[in-house]
Amino acid sequence: MEGIKIVTIGGGSSYTPELIEGFIKRYPELPVRELWLVDIPEGRKKLEVVSALAKRMVEKAGVPIEIHTTLDRREALPGADFVTTQIRVGHLEARAKDERIPLKYGVIGQETNGPGGLFKGLRTIPVILEICRDIEELCPEAWFINFSNPAGMVTEAVLRYSGITKTIGLCNVPIGMHMAVAEMLEVEQSRIHIDFAGLNHMVFGLEVYLDGKAVMGEVLDKLASGPSMTMKNIVDVGWEKDFIKALNLLPCPYHRYYYQTEKMLEQEQQALQDKGTRAEVVQDLEKELFTLYSDESLAVKPKQLEERGGAFYSDAACNLINSIYNNKQDIQVVNVRNNGAISSLPADSAVEVSCIITNEGPKPIAMGGMPVAVSGLVQQIKSFERLAAEAAVTGSYHTALLAMAINPLVSSDSTAKQILDEMLEAHKEYLPQFEKSYAG
Amino acid sequence: MEGIKIVTIGGGSSYTPELIEGFIKRYPELPVRELWLVDIPEGRKKLEVVSALAKRMVEKAGVPIEIHTTLDRREALPGADFVTTQIRVGHLEARAKDERIPLKYGVIGQETNGPGGLFKGLRTIPVILEICRDIEELCPEAWFINFSNPAGMVTEAVLRYSGITKTIGLCNVPIGMHMAVAEMLEVEQSRIHIDFAGLNHMVFGLEVYLDGKAVMGEVLDKLASGPSMTMKNIVDVGWEKDFIKALNLLPCPYHRYYYQTEKMLEQEQQALQDKGTRAEVVQDLEKELFTLYSDESLAVKPKQLEERGGAFYSDAACNLINSIYNNKQDIQVVNVRNNGAISSLPADSAVEVSCIITNEGPKPIAMGGMPVAVSGLVQQIKSFERLAAEAAVTGSYHTALLAMAINPLVSSDSTAKQILDEMLEAHKEYLPQFEKSYAG
Amino acid sequence: MEGIKIVTIGGGSSYTPELIEGFIKRYPELPVRELWLVDIPEGRKKLEVVSALAKRMVEKAGVPIEIHTTLDRREALPGADFVTTQIRVGHLEARAKDERIPLKYGVIGQETNGPGGLFKGLRTIPVILEICRDIEELCPEAWFINFSNPAGMVTEAVLRYSGITKTIGLCNVPIGMHMAVAEMLEVEQSRIHIDFAGLNHMVFGLEVYLDGKAVMGEVLDKLASGPSMTMKNIVDVGWEKDFIKALNLLPCPYHRYYYQTEKMLEQEQQALQDKGTRAEVVQDLEKELFTLYSDESLAVKPKQLEERGGAFYSDAACNLINSIYNNKQDIQVVNVRNNGAISSLPADSAVEVSCIITNEGPKPIAMGGMPVAVSGLVQQIKSFERLAAEAAVTGSYHTALLAMAINPLVSSDSTAKQILDEMLEAHKEYLPQFEKSYAG
Amino acid sequence: MEGIKIVTIGGGSSYTPELIEGFIKRYPELPVRELWLVDIPEGRKKLEVVSALAKRMVEKAGVPIEIHTTLDRREALPGADFVTTQIRVGHLEARAKDERIPLKYGVIGQETNGPGGLFKGLRTIPVILEICRDIEELCPEAWFINFSNPAGMVTEAVLRYSGITKTIGLCNVPIGMHMAVAEMLEVEQSRIHIDFAGLNHMVFGLEVYLDGKAVMGEVLDKLASGPSMTMKNIVDVGWEKDFIKALNLLPCPYHRYYYQTEKMLEQEQQALQDKGTRAEVVQDLEKELFTLYSDESLAVKPKQLEERGGAFYSDAACNLINSIYNNKQDIQVVNVRNNGAISSLPADSAVEVSCIITNEGPKPIAMGGMPVAVSGLVQQIKSFERLAAEAAVTGSYHTALLAMAINPLVSSDSTAKQILDEMLEAHKEYLPQFEKSYAG
Description:
Four copies of one chain form a homotetramer. Chain A has helices at 16-25, 44-61, 73-76, 91-104, 115-138, 151-161, 173-185, 216-225, 241-247, 256-259, 261-275, 278-294, 313-325, 372-394, 397-406, 413-426, 435-439; strands at 4-9, 32-38, 66-70, 82-85, 143-146, 167-169, 192-199, 202-210, 213-214, 330-337, 350-358, 361-364. Chain A is an alpha/beta fold and 440 residues long. Chain A binds chain D through residues 239-240, 242-247, 259-263, 372-384, 386-387, 397-399, 401-402, 405-406, 408, 411-417, and chain D through 239-240, 242-247, 259-263, 372-384, 386-387, 397-399, 401-402, 405-406, 408, 411-417. Chains A, B, C, D: Residues 196-410 form the Glycosyl hydrolase family 4 C-terminal domain.
């Protein structure tokens, strides 16, 4: 059949309009025939709002993309060319717990590579693996593109515990860093190239090029002096100038959690008092967005969506799908099987690295080993991800504890156990695999 | 200054008209301001013929490329953006010895990865390293692009024994394989993509894609059945069908020497009787070409040049220069520092691998390890190249003997010594570094 | 129960008296309570002769070792502490074919790492893996010590295709090299230490020490000058002095096949004419030995046994068992899982390397990577072993062909196929796993 | 000359009597002919006290060991068989600063792998490298055995920045763990074997064997339940039982600093208030010891010496020297060049690993990679050691800052800078290499 079939699981997400906009914008070269928005029964209402908006957007744009909705993903999957997932098991309520509980023990929750991320992974990975089994059965040729966080841990789990090899984890951090660097240097984005290597939310720019010339020194000077690059959802506490110069790498915004732990903790504690957790802030934003989406006169993506931390996520997804479909052979930074690209990390692990995107999929560029100064931290997060993925699959209490205890944000074995126990209890509805081991 | 300055060492080569044609064809996007053709005093006459033709070609095409000639490369180098080398130390006479002497001992000479290649390397590498020193001094920002054979060994030597990192070794084999596969499948070249990995003249296609779908099985069926893919300069002795299916990799034409040694040896011995060595055949071709070039009415590249084994070499060079200059980010197969791209080979060695070509240079794509069935042979040739490069620099008789003895074409330590001794004597004019150790 | 239980599969072998002698000699520290000699029904007669001799030997020595015999290994295995195997699937008749058929095609048969070894492996590995399954079931705590050739390939197969981890492959080559070096230097064996690394019958001495001082240079001088070190079963064709000096490693006797291929081939062809294959020579020796063994007055190991190529094999086995049982922590050279000891070979492959022998088993000593000059050849033999083991298990014709074609002794794909086809036919009685793929 | 010559640099140390006792005890098999005690001029008085005691000890024991003293190490070195170093640049006063200053910023000083260790390394490494240069010149055949802390960092520096390869770093931690495990299990030490792998003060028992059987589970049960194993100088804060079971590795006492950071920090802050830093406690102990040593009636090592954290250090040194001299081939745990023994760490780095000790030196046993759960932390400390060693040699402020900032005990880039700046100032007398970069 002509055209592309895309299935978006978690289609009722507030991010979906960005995705729709992305497909509309690219329609001339990326002919999406069908877009299936799939959600779970309890998300029915959001799905209705979002899909109605999607239909209005498509109609207004005048492109022949069919919007389908279903609460049964097995109905949607057959014949899919691309399956994307943007799910949030346990909703923002769960995220709020991921952030609040660790803070009680003086530990940053950090919803991807911290204790919060561990629990997000424990909840999300089993669901993702079920989706993978359906894909293997119903559309084995499809590309599986995940942008549910923690994207690195999820990609690790898919590579280790499913039969799917055509899988890509997506993140908007590298694209954000690229944009920020271009802005700092006051040049067009296309003149900048950055060699990225690391893990999801633990990625470094190894070198920055302007028109092919290495300009890391200049970029770091600016980063350390002026207001430093960050994400919408991460407070900028400033970098120690000498440290940044010594590091001689471009850190990602999330590195603040590891290199400025104290300050970030203070900020989070202050913010919690002032306005609740980030999850709670986002809940308010979500409500606002859905009120907007419900307005039947709205037929474009509203500006407010860009206020979310996840801005450009869906655009990145469209870009990726476009490059695969059209064999663009451009460079994008995604989470894939390492295959030796970062020689200091296991070849069979997921890494976040600059890839060339072809119609055979992303091919990672060989970066050598991570620089000495960061190879330990990166390995530690990779170990955390691996143990977390294993715990999510096996439901082993000890493996989960080990993941928690080796996380760089957790500084004591007994604190690790306390946080783990309280969070297991708090999330038990979404963690059936821990039923037995928890009792033990 | 506007435009690009290119210095071509060995500019009096018969291949030069292809280079000129390449620059003319690409002028709109690749504005070559100056092309310096450099040669040694004894090549003065050829240089005059070739540069005169070059000037006529440029004039006829109406592009403002200045053609300069000099017998002193230090005059040419300052300010160069690209330096290319296409030198032949000892001329075709030396190549004839490289081929004839091993055959006396029942061994294929093989001018790149065989005993002949060892001696070509021993003669060529010291000259290349002198050129490198001049580049480091006079135009340290230039890209150094070598297409003198043995290109893998030369690149290994430049990486290990010079201070130059912006170096690329070029080969026309992968481009020829790509074209041949497209022809076999009767599709346009642009629809085919091949993942290449290995060493110079020891490169494998790991997978072949047609429109993004893996089609290795189909390609190998065709390769094993019909007339098999080869180079102008390599006899096609046919592949054993079951072997090719078992291998499940696309071999390069030079693999015949290692997987069909007996037949290739017979062919070479027969050919020697019939028409002399390949070198001698080429000498006649060369004479013809220079007669053509001298014709003042000629102002285009003559068709006959394409009969040479090195066809498309210069075109490949122009392509590469163009992609670097214009940051094309296309995939080309070149010889570069491995950097982990092929995980079963040392990170600091030269490999031939699919790279994305940017304005920061080629970035190799991570291919994982060489497949089990070929990893030994590839490592053996890499060891041969390393020892040969070391011997070329140190003039160590023992290291040269070791290189000769471990070459897969040489099956006995005593034969290795006999060939080595006779070749050292035959080439002594071009091997001053062996003066002492040879006496010993 | 007090004392050790040992099960020897292939107990009717002519080597068994050496094993008995070894256990008698070591009885005071190695109290063997029961020794079970197991053989197959068609070996019943040999088993009777050998076990009768064994009983006479034990009685004469006055040690309380019980000798049991059985034709059903499952009767013998329960409670075993050590299981040793010395089997020869297809008997010497099969070995004769392993040697004769390749020679018809101008290729050395080489019963371990050559075409002959491939077929020995194809016959032997399935039987060994059945034994492994019985061990896993009946005596999972036992050490499994194999000295059936090709010992490297068999160990690779056990590591990859059985659940047994307590497995060791044994070889008498390193011990023979050690003895020969001591003899060359005219010193006691205990003053010599050699760092061994490589594969079975492809092992190198990386350094030789006399009283802790490196003496490789001196040893190689002697090796290259006088009569060179070899095995009873390998002709000494002499080493090229300069090659050996250049190599700067101690080669094993089997390296002649790869570094002196032509001369070895001539020798084998001559020997075939003169006295038949080595297998046929051994058949005569065997007959002689069994005539001796049948003599009821004989109650010691006869001297003639030492004429076999496998001399010291059984002694090496007793030594190994003794060191494990008594936690001797001495250094022995055995075939075990690499575990990074030789960094240029896969961590999960079998290697032959100096190990410290403890009561937890052998622990390999870290040797770094194989030296550049030999890493290719060693990798090629490892690849050959891996493919051969895979073919033995899967019965894949293509995998067997690939193993044959990449063997360094085989120089052509079509020759590989011819030898393979003739040998598959000749051995089909012992290769049920190839029934189908052969037909294809 | 008969007998062994040993040179002990830092001979005036209070540990020396243990060394003397060790040599006396082993005299029959380890005939020390001359022991040279070397110190710096300001240590003259201590040297006199210690050497006088040494002479009384030797005389009383009736062994012919000559005790020499000198303030010029170049007088002592010629002809040495072993050179040992036990130096403390800046004395206990400096150590007190190493501990006090970080505590001001809420960071544990930790005198080996913490901020304190960084400064100990910056002071010590340049002195050690000068000693190395003298050894290379005056006794190039000698073994250089260092037990100055931080021993891992110092060994890394010697391997990277000196020409000495015969170097070993010594630590008493593994021997203490071995003793403690034997005590826990109530068995003789000789029945226990532990596979050790990691770094100095960051070493893990990968498996514990009792009579060859793996007993890690039992050992960890005991470790987590009863009073846990520790050093004299490290407070026992107890392990979280579930964590230890989850880890499934035997941690070393120093791991408390990383897995129980908060509690250890509290303890240190409390202890500081109660009795000053550990350095200050040790200063008092030292005074006491020297008072004892000065007693001319004392001719044996006083019991009180065993109260020091460094107990068994000198005994370990004697053991090591004995095993090298007598080619004991026993297993000891020392700091040496990795050489692939721990495959997840660089081959050319220093690691602490079980080695077999021969007269050619220690040969590390291949352990595979560090387990997933700890590979990140171990790599981080290795990176810290490498950067610290580099900073010690180059005097680079940025490199020192990077080392400080990536240390797992330091949680903020700005705190890292504050501690670094205050410590550079406090120690400036001993850090001439930082003169310039500090000013900058």
